[in-house]
């Protein structure tokens, strides 16, 4: 066939010495593009006078004859005779006269019922709610409604006609089509990307760091399926995620200081590259989230890049349609989709194609895991963003999508990860919190009791079904956040304010208690959690200080012991935060800064009471936990000479908050709660 350039100039297209380009294109230096489909009659095809069904039958006969010796003989003759009998029956029915309108309508209804296509689905317009996505579908509009209806975008585009015109092959037109095309993945691979190729880390070190992450840090940063995110697979998919996982692990290994510095620096380089070159993939979203929990502090408390990283992760996730529920297109045709709409769902085949897995079967285990990883990523992003906003007092940006509304049983699956239960529990908690800000006390308590009852049995540990420390801190901080929103409500009666002050102090003490008791499991505490714990400490200190003078003058020993007991618990919390911040020499964490800050405000609060005495009058500390890797624990900076102690009351009268249960804390506050 002649190339497009010769066709346009209407000259003979002759092959030259160049096997790729014709003689004219070789002379002009242009691209020699030959269409894959030739218009007109093919060689050896004769004009046929047969028409209609007769022509179709003749073509079937010829096809059977050319099919090969396996279908010759009786099988071929049998197929031809059956086709002829069907043709004769159709001609007889047509000769018998036109059918009545009623019979015709009945036949049409039976056909529709066989297809199981509901009327509202036949009238559905895919992506009508998404202008840019609808523009991307514009190239599929030439398909007839019957052929394109119900197809996923991937299926529809795979059936595009091959006889493209010369205008469509024009470079400018191709650029226009690419501009309006659907958003596809764009992996972050290239020169100076891979840390192993750059010599920053060896393959053995990478295996060790990944193994460490999945065993020791996965409970802190949800979203990564260990069955998928192995070293070879992650390295091939995303250099940013590959480096981020290793950098996070190196932060908590004492002997990996130099390695941690190299990987952290490369992480920042890749983050800039991803933003500059618009790389998009599920793994890039996960990479941004992996970097958030242990980000180094800036000059000011708001100078780190946490908010920017979450914003970038949210943008990429929405571009890749991660908020949508995976639902096959057939579910809408047979009515199995329930109350879901097309705009809330994405076909699994489309999801795999958009991620670069067009050859993976959506029904295979690998295909199901790949589709599920998208949903897990969106749930993890929702939980992380809500936690960050609560910790920093920012408005929410990640919306509550149908996937989040229907995620209560999402963790129940044969391919579920061990951390999916904890992830879903937090997603349900954050999701159901929005309508609770205006509820009354009974509804609020009932909500948390129901949550503890359901998720304590699901993810609880030990005979008492105790929640993991990290989850317990998040839950208790959530309760404290709710109380802090209504504690100063101008229209609240005095009794209501008393209740919320007591409940807020109880929640704040429980946050710190969970941090102290779960010290061994919280060595990888994220920055957001450190903010939550510090907020609880400041909140408790504020409330206890307000009644300090009243309590000291009161004969009620419980009231007098409340403020020093709270300060003792805050100091114990500061010890834990400082240990976590100094878990390795190169761990540049905000936890240490918050620990020093808590000690300074406790010192000021104690000095304000005018009472100084020796330290050690507070709650006896538990046995110091060893290093998380079995090494010798590094002692935090000593504050024994600078930190004032508590009132010179009997140490036995102080409340040992750090070793008490939640019910015991409430009972202690009720005994000392006359001033509340």
From TrEMBL:
Amino acid composition bias (Polar residues), ranges on this chain = 143-166
Please name the Pfam families in this protein's record. Answer: Zn_clus
- Full protein name: Zn(2)-C6 fungal-type domain-containing protein
Where does the record place the Zn(2)-C6 fungal-type domain? 2-34
Q: Which PROSITE patterns match?
A: ZN2_CY6_FUNGAL_1 (PS00463), ZN2_CY6_FUNGAL_2 (PS50048)
Q: Does the keyword Signal apply?
A: no
One GO MF term attached to the UniProt entry = DNA-binding transcription factor activity, RNA polymerase II-specific
Q: Which N-terminal stretch is annotated as signal sequence?
A: none
**Residue ranges of the TM segments:** none
Q: Which UniProt keywords apply?
A: DNA-binding, Nucleus, Transcription, Transcription regulation
Where found?
Nucleus
Question: Can you list the GO cellular component terms from the UniProt entry?
Answer: nucleus
Query: From which source organism is this entry?
Result: Cryphonectria parasitica (strain ATCC 38755 / EP155)
């Amino acid at each position: 066939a002649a190339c497009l350039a010769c066709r346009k100039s209407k000259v003979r297209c002759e092959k030259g010495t160049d096997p790729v380009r014709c003689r004219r294109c070789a002379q002009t230096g242009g691209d020699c593009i030959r269409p894959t489909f030739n218009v007109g009659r093919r060689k050896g095809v004769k004009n046929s006078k047969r028409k209609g069904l007769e022509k179709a039958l003749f073509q079937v006969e010829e096809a059977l004859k050319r099919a090969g010796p396996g279908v010759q003989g009786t099988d071929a003759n049998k197929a031809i005779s059956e086709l002829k009998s069907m043709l004769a029956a159709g001609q007889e029915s047509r000769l018998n006269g036109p059918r009545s309108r009623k019979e015709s309508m009945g036949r049409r209804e039976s056909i529709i019922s066989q297809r199981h296509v509901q009327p509202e689905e036949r009238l559905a317009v895919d992506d009508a709610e998404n202008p840019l996505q609808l523009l991307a579908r514009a190239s599929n509009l030439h398909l007839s409604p019957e052929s394109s209806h119900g197809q996923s975008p991937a299926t529809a585009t795979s059936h595009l006609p091959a006889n493209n015109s010369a205008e469509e092959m024009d470079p400018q037109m191709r650029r226009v089509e690419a501009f309006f095309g659907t958003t596809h993945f764009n992996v972050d691979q290239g020169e100076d990307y891979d840390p192993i190729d750059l010599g920053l880390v060896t393959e053995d070190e990478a295996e060790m760091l990944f193994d460490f992450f999945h065993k020791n840090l996965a409970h802190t940063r949800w979203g990564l399926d260990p069955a998928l995110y192995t070293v070879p697979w992650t390295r091939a998919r995303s250099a940013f995620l590959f480096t981020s996982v290793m950098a996070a692990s190196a932060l908590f290994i004492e002997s990996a200081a130099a390695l941690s510095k190299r990987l952290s620096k490369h992480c920042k380089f890749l983050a800039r590259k991803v933003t500059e070159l618009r790389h998009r993939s599920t793994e890039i979203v996960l990479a941004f989230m992996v970097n958030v929990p242990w980000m180094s502090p800036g000059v000011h408390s708001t100078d780190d890049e946490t908010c920017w990283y979450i914003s970038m992760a949210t943008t990429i996730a929405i571009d890749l349609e991660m908020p949508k529920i995976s639902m096959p297109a057939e579910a809408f045709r047979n009515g199995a989709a329930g109350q879901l709409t097309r705009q809330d769902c994405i076909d699994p085949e489309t999801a795999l194609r958009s991620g670069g897995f067009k050859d993976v079967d959506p029904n295979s285990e690998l295909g199901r895991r790949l589709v599920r990883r998208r949903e897990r990523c969106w749930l993890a992003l929702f939980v992380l963003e809500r936690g960050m906003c609560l910790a920093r007092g920012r408005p929410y940006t990640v919306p509550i999508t149908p996937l989040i509304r229907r995620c209560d049983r999402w963790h129940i699956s044969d391919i579920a990860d061990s951390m999916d239960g904890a992830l879903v529990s937090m997603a349900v908690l954050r999701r159901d919190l929005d309508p609770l800000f205006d509820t009354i006390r009974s509804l609020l308590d009932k909500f948390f009791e129901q949550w503890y009852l359901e998720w304590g049995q699901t993810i609880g540990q030990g005979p008492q079904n105790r929640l993991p420390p990290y989850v317990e801190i998040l839950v208790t901080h959530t309760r404290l956040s709710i109380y802090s929103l209504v504690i100063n409500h101008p229209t609240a009666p005095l009794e209501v304010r008393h209740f919320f002050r007591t409940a807020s102090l109880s929640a704040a003490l429980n946050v710190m208690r969970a941090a102290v008791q779960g010290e061994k499991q919280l060595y990888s505490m994220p920055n957001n959690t450190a903010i939550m714990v510090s907020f609880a400490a400041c909140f408790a200190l504020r409330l206890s200080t307000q009644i300090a003078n009243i309590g000291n003058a009161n004969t009620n020993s419980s009231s007098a012991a409340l403020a020093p007991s709270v300060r003792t618990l805050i100091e114990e919390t500061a010890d834990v935060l400082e240990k976590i911040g100094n878990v390795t020499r190169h761990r540049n964490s905000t936890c240490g800064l918050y620990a020093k800050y808590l000690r300074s405000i406790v010192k000021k609060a104690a000095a304000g009471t005018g009472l100084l005495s020796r330290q050690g009058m507070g709650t006896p500390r538990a046995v110091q936990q060893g290093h998380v890797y079995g090494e010798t624990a590094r002692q935090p900076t000593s504050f024994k000479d600078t930190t004032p102690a508590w009132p010179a009351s009997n140490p036995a009268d102080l409340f040992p908050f750090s070793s008490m249960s939640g019910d015991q804390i409430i009972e202690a506050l009720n005994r000392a709660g006359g001033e509340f």
